[in-house]
Amino acid sequence: MAGTPIPGLRADQLHVFVDGLVLPVSVGILPHEHLAPQPVRFDIDLVVAVTPPLTSENIADTVSYADVVAEVKAICAAGHIALLETLAERVAEAVLADRRVEWVRVGVAKPQIIAEAAGVGIAIARSRADRKLG
């Protein structure tokens, strides 16, 4: 869950998160999911490299969660995506494009698909090291 403390953070790392971002997204493989966007919930955790102690009061010294949200919105607006897995990978890749981001966890859920569930979805974790391998 976004916002839950990440164990093992070093003094030169910061936990930035976006918790419970709900956006309309055209996503899914079923025919009715191609007809109209549906609400999708995003929970995103980032581990960001910083120069401790972070006392500058300058947003340029960290990663802005507003920028993360803008990236997610742009991905969602770009057109239909068949799988939540693909959506999560695109978000992770966009976030890791900022060289200060060392690790990201992206949870993506559809809250209206199964009536008996608060949501169904997936979560992935990716690191800068993962990007270098692929």
Question: What features would you describe in this structure?
Answer:
By secondary structure, the chain is an alpha+beta fold. It has one domain: GTP Cyclohydrolase I, domain 2 (2-Layer Sandwich), CATH 3.30.1130.10. The protein has helices at residues 65-77, 84-96, 128-133, and strands spanning 13-25, 38-49, 101-110, 120-127. The chain has a four-stranded antiparallel β-sheet. α1 (65-77) crosses α2. It is elongated.
Protein topology:
Blueprint: E1 13-25, E2 38-49, H1 65-77, H2 84-96, E3 101-110, E4 120-127, H3 128-133
Antiparallel strand pairs: 1-2, 2-3, 3-4
Please, what is the average pLDDT? Answer: 92
What is the succession of H and E elements? EEHHEEH
Helix content: 10-25%
Give the biggest beta sheet: 4 strands, antiparallel
Give the percentage of residues in beta strands: 25-35%
- Which structural class do you get from the secondary structure elements? alpha+beta
Q: CATH homologous superfamily?
A: GTP cyclohydrolase I, C-terminal domain/NADPH-dependent 7-cyano-7-deazaguanine reductase, N-terminal domain
What is the count of β-strands? 4
Radius of gyration: 16 Å
Taken together, the total number of domains comes to 1
Termini separation (Å)? 26 Å
Q: What is the level 1 CATH name?
A: Alpha Beta
CATH fold type:
GTP Cyclohydrolase I, domain 2
Going across the major beta sheet, what is the strand order? 1-2-3-4
- The coarse overall form would be elongated
